[in-house]
Amino acid sequence: MLSKKTKYGIKALTFLARQNSRKPVSIATISKSETISVKFLETILLTLKKNGILGSKKGMGGGYYLLKEPKDVPMTTVMRVLEGPIAMVPCVSLNYYEKCNDCPDEDKCAVHRLMIQIRDNSLKVFRNTTLEDLTN
Amino acid sequence: MLSKKTKYGIKALTFLARQNSRKPVSIATISKSETISVKFLETILLTLKKNGILGSKKGMGGGYYLLKEPKDVPMTTVMRVLEGPIAMVPCVSLNYYEKCNDCPDEDKCAVHRLMIQIRDNSLKVFRNTTLEDLTN
DNA sequence: TAATATCCTACTAACCCTATAGGGTATTAG
DNA sequence: CTAATACCCTATAGGGTTAGTAGGATATTA
Questions:
Q1: What is the residue-averaged pLDDT of chain A?
Q2: Which residues of A107-127 are buried (b: 16+ CB within 10 A; e: fewer)?
Q3: CA A26, CA A29: separation in Å to the nearest integer?
Q4: Does pTM surpass 0.85?
């Protein structure tokens, strides 16, 4: 299941990507437009900022803005920041690999081989989709 | 993330699929071979039975066995029984559809359109993979 | 009748997710 | 200089799910 955090995060990013200019947009504005709790959205945008996807400006006229052009933000990056690993099991994760404590031989593990296929397909989609693609 | 329940379930099913005969195999036997807690495995096999994937026999020489040939058990069925919906969000689920309370127009929702692609790719893999494929 | 093995429900401890609270800090306008 | 705006940051609470356990009931076989 996709977390609300990720869902809201993607919606907010898409909203920002749709803006004509890259001027800061306040949390309140995004919150209203996308029907997301202000406080919850605040924490989400903060993690997007800490992970180099958004920039911010404080004070009057401040808000959040994209650091890159929407076409240069692949969904792999967004998903990893918000949702964590793209793989369904740690033993097939590229960025967060972890060995299973059961399972002596990964190559012979049915779950392992099945989940590699799922991971590869998901990766293909996320890699080939940018924020720009989501604005249409 | 794939739940342990699903992971163990798939391993147990694969173990059963690898048997030459369709004679009952006891929980204890599967438990030892796959390093899964007996009690936990018990509940998993029970749900597989209740959902028509496994049959069982009580008493001495009893155990669980596949009701169909491995090649006739697609992973879509297994995943839905153990893990639930294949889709990452209810609004793109075929079997467990649910409308989002935010989001007035699904066709215009970025998350919706992205997750349909993920669902379609996962479905393709699960549909084209049977228990037999996992035994190799 | 004793041994084997599934059946079934309930329970608990741990963990994660969602959301909120409450104050701190930087910036801008007047 | 001051007030208003809006982000920054940490902590926490409540609810839900997951992983695993307990303990007895029931059916089958030898």
A1: 96
A2: eebbbbbbbbbbbebbbebbe
A3: 5
A4: yes
pLDDT for A66-110, tens place per residue? 999 999 999 999 999 999 999 999 999 999 999 998 888 999 999
- C1' of D1 to CA of A24 (Å): 27
In this structure, the strands spanning B54-57 and B63-66 are: antiparallel
Query: CA-to-C1' distance for B75 and C22, Å?
Result: 49
C-alpha–C-alpha distance, residues A82 and A99, integer Å: 23
Considering all nucleic acid strands, name the nucleotide whose C1' atom is nearest to the C-alpha of residue A42.
D7
Which two tokens mark A85?
């690993």
Please count the residue pairs, one from chain A and one from chain B, whose beta carbons lie less than 8 angstroms apart. Answer: 70
Percent of chain B with pLDDT over 70: 100
Which protein residue has its CA closest to C1' of D10?
A43
At B133 the three-state DSSP class reads: helix
